[in-house]
Amino acid sequence: MAVQLNPYLSFRDEAREAMEFYHSVFGGELTLNTFGDFHASESSAEVDKIMHGRLVAGDLHLMGADTPNEMPFEAGTNFAVSLSGGPEDDARLRGYWEALAEDGEVALALEPSPWGDVFGMLTDRFGVQWMVDIGRPVPNGAASAAAALADADANADAPGGAD
Q1: Secondary structure class of 48 (helix, strand, coil)
Q2: Do 117 and 136 meet the contact criterion of CB atoms below 8 Å apart?
Q3: Eight-state DSSP code of residue 12
Q4: Enclosing H/E stretch for 83
Q5: How many C-beta neighbours within 10 Å does residue 69 have?
Q6: Fewest CB within 10 A of the end CB: N or C in the chain?
Q7: Residue 100: what are its φ and ψ, rounded to 5°?
């Protein structure tokens, strides 16, 4: 997998509608994962909100999510730049992370995420928000990290599964 530079849009409760609109405009494949899919919110008001949306239409990549209620949101500043790649890009992406974090502010440390990738968020010294996602190897030919996570959850629930 090559390293990709992606615009990442933030919304307040409109990510699903917005990403479906962009899908109607650009076509391609749209993947929407909720906070509930990843057990990433204890608030029942957020369980169906989009934690991660990804639209891939050829060489066009667009990502988006709903901003959690406890985080500030101001329209017009609702974007970040996302760097993503696979495990083979780990060193390169960590190098970018370290360079961008210098004299910046880390909002979420670069560490394992609920969906299994290594993920972090920071604002660089110029006020630009960045997200770095290092994908994990996808087991058993699973089609996506979400499918890999579901597979891992199923294995953990099976007799003799992971603890």
Answers
A1: coil
A2: yes
A3: S
A4: strand 79-85
A5: 13
A6: C
A7: -70, -30
Mean pLDDT in residue range 18-30 = 91
Query: 16: closest CA among 57, 46, 59?
Result: 46
Mean of pLDDT values over 24-53: 92
Supply 92's token pair.
């390169």
Nearest of 95, 139, 103, 94 to residue 124 by alpha carbon: 103
CA dist 146 and 83 (Å) reads 18
User: For 32, which DSSP code?
Assistant: E
Which has the closest alpha carbon to 122: 93, 98, 91?
98
Token couple for 158:
């099976």
Residue 5's alpha-carbon distances to 28, 50, 90, in angstroms, are 18, 21, 15
Cβ pair 27, 99 in contact under 8 A: no
Q: State the DSSP H helix or E strand holding residue 119, giving kind and residue range, or none if neither.
A: strand 118-123
Measured in whole angstroms, how far is the alpha carbon of residue 104 from the centre of its chain? 20
* Residue 42 phi, psi (nearest 5): -90, -5
